[in-house]
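Schema walk-through. Below, the input block comes first and the output block second. Nothing else is stored per chain. Lengths vary across the set, and this one has 71 residues.
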Amino acid sequence: KDGLKKLLIDIELPIDMLNNTEGLKILESELLQTIRSYITVSPKLNFVEIGTLPEVQGKAKRVDDRRPKDF
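--- output ---
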């Protein structure tokens, strides 16, 4: 919408880690700091339960580019 690129990262975690809000805040902070140091972009992290994300058969799909095709 605004011309800025957005990066969403889905991360699977065990349910006990998802329920630990304090630990999750620390993990998120550390991950964001590490990611920013490599790519200078602040992504949105989405923590989900293990098994939530679809499994990819064959070659791993690491990036889901959702930009419009006319971009």
